[in-house]
UniProtKB/TrEMBL annotation:
It catalyses: 3-dehydroquinate = 3-dehydroshikimate + H2O. The record marks 17 as: Transition state stabilizer. Substrate binds at residues 71, 77, 84, 98-99, 108. The keyword Amino-acid biosynthesis applies. Belongs to the type-II 3-dehydroquinase family. GO terms for biological process: amino acid biosynthetic process; aromatic amino acid family biosynthetic process; chorismate biosynthetic process; quinate catabolic process. The active site is at 22 (proton acceptor), 97 (proton donor). Pathway: Metabolic intermediate biosynthesis; chorismate biosynthesis; chorismate from D-erythrose 4-phosphate and phosphoenolpyruvate: step 3/7. GO terms for molecular function: 3-dehydroquinate dehydratase activity. InterPro entries: DHquinase_II, DHquinase_II_CS, DHquinase_II_sf. Catalyzes a trans-dehydration via an enolate intermediate. The gene is aroQ. Its EC number is 4.2.1.10. This is 3-dehydroquinate dehydratase.
Length: 137
């Protein structure tokens, strides 16, 4: 089983960015934890602050991987291009958010991506990624 986690803009700053919202762990640390929790899964990780790079990555993995876990971060609420890419590929996508976007500003309540996903995991901190992986098992 091959799964990739794709993180969008500013998620490279996890650990230092608004720790009261996103926690104080880096994603690189947490990724090691995830790999040890799921030793039989081939887990890949990609992060970009650039919308087009996320679209290209979705296209490149989206016809061969078994699952994609996508936290498009702020692009969730703005990007028709990423939503179209999720719609265009055949690999199922699970959308993830670390924070509970529904308890935050109104502009975070809309996701252009959700309609084209297998499901959405929101608000469980970094554990949201673990729950998303479990949804593919
Ligand atoms: C986020 C929520 C988004 O609203 C925000 O722009 C992010 C992170 C989350 O994981 O909680 O950058 O996707």
């Amino acid at each position: 089983m091959k799964i990739i986690i794709i993180n969008g803009p500013n998620l490279n700053l996890l650990g230092t960015r608004e720790p009261h919202i996103y926690g104080d762990n880096t994603f690189e640390n947490y990724f090691e934890v995830l790999k040890s929790k799921f030793p039989t899964i081939t887990l890949d990780y990609f992060q970009s602050n650039i919308e087009g790079e996320i679209i290209t990555k979705l296209q490149n993995v989206g016809f061969s991987y078994d699952g994609i876990i996508l936290n498009a971060a702020a692009y969730t609420h703005t990007s028709i291009g990423i939503a179209d890419a999720v719609k265009a590929i055949t690999t199922p996508v699970v959308e993830v958010h670390i924070s509970n976007t529904f308890s935050r500003e109104n502009f975070r309540h809309q996701s252009f991506i959700s309609p084209y996903t297998k499901g959405v995991v929101i608000g469980f901190g970094l554990q949201s990624y673990q729950l998303a992986i479990q949804s593919f098992l």
